[in-house]
Each structure stands twice: as structure tokens, then as C-alpha cells.
Amino acid sequence: MTIWKHSILHGIQGTIADIPELPKKVYEVVPQEFGDSLGTSKIVEQNTSSDGTTTKILLEFQDGLRAESVIMRYDSALGRNTEANASRAGNKRATLCVSSQVGCQMGCTFCATGTMGLIGDLTAGEILEQLVMANKITPIRNIVFMGMGEPLNNYAEVVGAVNAMIDPRRFGLSPAHVTVSTVGVVPRIIQMAEDLPAVNFALSLHAPTQELRVKIVPSAKAFPLDKLMAAVDRHHEISGRAVFIEYVMLSEVNDGEEQARQLAELLTPRKGHVTVNLIPWNPMLAKDGAEPFDAPNPDNIQRFQITLKECGIPVLPPPRALSLAHRRICQHIDSL
């Protein structure tokens, strides 16, 4: 525990020799068994946006693979991430977007990471090192698994990392401040409700029908929409927690009145335990190999939101909560 506390309080850039008052044998055995460094990663790039609200960190791990995490700073009173609020002293709260894999095999057509394919899984320790490094820059209050990779395809390591995050003896984060987002791996959704019942769950849905979803999210072929939504219902039954429904809006693809009504129809039986998070697609995500999409018209976003609300479906206001977090990731992760 002494080694752990030192690593958390003083960072993981030092060596075992930097930790005082350990038994003499430890200074001999630990370097022989585990190497001299306290960590397995290093920051190779760090960039902060001009308004000071967002910092992107690029970490390199001991195997040479690299993954990104993003710190997003908010005004705790207003819930907004703006240049004006960045200057408000004492009101800051910070969310860290962590990666669970290097690359991703899900192939979502609008996602830059999806064009990479899966390069490798991160260990629980490598996921946690993103938090340790970020804490040295800004005290972190919230964690969202919305970075590189599909968290539920690296299930054991993600669960191990989350358990460390919410352990009072280690990072001590509130489970309600940790969100795991998935494009939809049905068996793991149910298992996560049993293993992490107090942690937030977000489903990246992006389409109201199976036919459209397969075009946007190719992995949907393996997990049809009816089975996916049944898993969402089961997750709620087990955990008792509401589910965030993430919906990236793509112009003239899934942002029309027809899609809004189809989504309302899909979610009406679940209106007591789902909240929709509308996320306008950002052109800065476009990369070679990705599908050419356009950002939705603001009027379409508003109409879409109104339609859902008229049907009694809860919708997060666009400038707040996960919508803001995800949009800031989209705007900054590839543009800093």
C-alpha cells in the first residue's frame, strides 16, 4: 500500500528508490521482479486547447503502443465548458475520457478510431495509468469510457480498472461518477449489471431500426436491435440504474423526423429508465477510410429533440452532461 500511495500522490515517473521507508529487501526484490520504474507508461504528447478547458494526453506504454485520453474541465455551477467559465476560480470539475483499447474492431462508420481496426487491448493498469497521469495535471472527478476502443470487448481489464477507481482505499471515486459506454455487446451488458451495478451505463445506439443501425454500426449484425434492447432492459432490472442512450446525429442519415418518431417508438416502453443524449456529428472526426458524413442542421437537432420530448422521452440538453463531454472529445481529440 505504501508503494501504491506514493505512486498516486507523487506520480509514476520515478523509481522504487524514490519511495522512503520501505523494507531494505523491497528495494532489492521489486526492481528484479518488476523493473525499476513505478509505471509502465509515459506522456509523449500533451496539448491543451486555447480556452484551457480541454487537455489531450498521448501515452506510450511499455510495449510501444499509444493511446489517447482527454481531460475536460467544467464549471460546476453552470455545467458548461466555456472560455468564460474557465476563469471562474473554485468551480472547476474535471472529467477524464479514457481509452480501453488501442484501435477498435467495431468499425463504426462515423468514428475515426473505427478505421484503425483493433491493434491491442490495454491492461487494467494501463487504463489506470491514464487516470494517474491526468490527476497530476488536474484533479479528476468523473471518468467516461468513451475514448479509443470498445470497453466490453476488453471486459476483464475494464472491470478491474473500474473496481480500482471506485475502491475507497485506492482512487475513491464515486461509482455514480464513472460511465462505461458500449456500442452493444449483449452478453457483457448483462454481466456488467451484475459486476458493476452502481456504475453508469451508456449505449451508443445511433439508429432507431436494425436496418439503419447495421449501415452505421456494422457490428450490429452480430447483436440485433431487439436483443440489444432486451439487454438494456435486463441491465436496468438488475442494477436499478437508468441507461444513457447515445445518438450521434448524421445529416440526412439518422436526423430526420421519421427517425425521431422511430426512436420514440423504440424507447416509449422504456421511458422510465432511459435518457437520450443527442450528439451532433463533428466533421473534424473525418479521416481517410471513414465514411463522408455531414454535421446535422441545428434546426433538425431541435426538431428531433422536441419530437422525443413530446413523446415523453427524456433528452439531455445539448450543452450539458454526457452530450457536452462527448462533443468536446469529438472537437478536440484529433484537432489539438
Automatic annotation (TrEMBL):
Which SUPFAM superfamilies does the annotation name?
Radical SAM enzymes
Look up keyword Iron-sulfur and say if it applies: yes
Q: Where in the cell is it found?
A: Cytoplasm
Domain (Radical SAM core) ranges: 90-314
InterPro entries noted in UniProt: Aldolase_TIM, Methyltransferase_A, rRNA_lsu_MTrfase_RlmN/Cfr, rSAM, rSAM_sf
Q: What cofactor requirement does the entry state?
A: [4Fe-4S] cluster
The record's Gene Ontology cellular component field reads: cytoplasm
Which Pfam families does this entry report, sorted A to Z?
Radical_SAM
One Gene Ontology molecular-function label: RNA methyltransferase activity
Q: Which PROSITE patterns match?
A: RADICAL_SAM
Tell me the keywords, alphabetical order: 4Fe-4S, Cytoplasm, Iron, Iron-sulfur, Metal-binding, Methyltransferase, S-adenosyl-L-methionine, Transferase
Could you state one GO biological process linked to this protein?
A: tRNA methylation
The name under which this protein is listed is Radical SAM core domain-containing protein
Q: Which organism is it from?
A: Cymbomonas tetramitiformis
